[in-house]
Amino acid sequence: MSFAENITVEALEADPYPIYAELRRSAPVAFVPAVNLWFVTRWKDVESVAKSPDIFSAVVGSSPVERSFGKPTILTTDGETHKQLRQGVDPKYRPRTVAAYAGDLVRSIAEPYLDRIAEQGAAELMADYFEPVSTLSLARSLGLADIDMPTLRRWFYGLAQGAINFENDPKRQEIADAISAEVGDAILPTLERLAHAPDDSALSHMLHDGMPEGTTRPIDFLMPSIKVILLGGMQEPGHGAGSILAGLLSHPEQLRQVLADPESFVPKAVDEGLRWVAPIGTQTRQTTRAVELGGVTIPAGAAVAALVSSASRDESRFADPNRFDINRDEGNHAAFGFGHHFCSGRFFAREQMCLAVRLLLLRFPDLSLVPGKAPVFRGWEFRAPTTLHVSLGVRHQ
């Protein structure tokens, strides 16, 4: 059996990066039976897949996202349908718009959690800070004001079970289906209200922007994409921030650089953390015809994973790519994807990560990892530390 044929889901979940490195060396485009996907691992090929919708379509015949959330979704459409969905999503998350509201929003959510951590004297930062700040920031920007953090985190973990279920595990699917139905029931009243009384929330923009006077996009048309946005928008900033901080705490000399000049080095740390561990690992496509790529022929109708996580560790682009190094100057990472499916919430996500990390380090400059509790990363489609145990050093009130 070939290397790719021996890859297991468990090995990918534990640590996909050595697997990707071997594939980049020996089989940069390879079919992986365990997940029923063609893996594309090198930067130039990943970029080519994502930027060639005529050959690699976002419309995938057997998509775990559509199986779990319904269709159409903003991830699994091209052409006019995708344009319609982006036209509603983009207004709330443009750079200038984000700059006007993100600071106050994230700070108002983060500070009570920082106060609680100060009282505790220690924290598990994924559950105690990064995930709550991420889930609540996204929900409030959408216009979901009344849904509490435990519910949002439960939604996130349940929806994720469906989105990563490439192997079609019935237990994962059962969890995802139940949460997907719950999410739909919970947010339907908000959408119905916004259809008649618009405001400046992202959900309102999705209903109204670009539509003829007196009309809205149908709720059934938007609902699958709202579930995608809830999952990705809650997951990426919180998990990305956790990986960033794990990198900094594991490299004290780089942490000192950030603490000495947060304005300059927090953004660098954020971008390097996203390169080092991509919170979302793939852009999934389907071939419209047989195509040669990376020395092999991918058949027509095949599901293809353009691995942005692997592209961001491609040795042809990044020196010593497994090393976390905030002083890199080697160009952009691939964590937000490529092409017209480039992450629509990237400005909000990046700003949120910068704010969450900066507020944390300004409040607790003596943070350190708890001895014996080093962060353990899990996941290949969604990857982050499972826990991030820290002590505060000096007790801060």
From TrEMBL:
Its cofactor is heme. Pfam families: p450. Gene3D superfamilies: Cytochrome P450. Belongs to the cytochrome P450 family. This is Cytochrome P450. It comes from Mesorhizobium cantuariense.
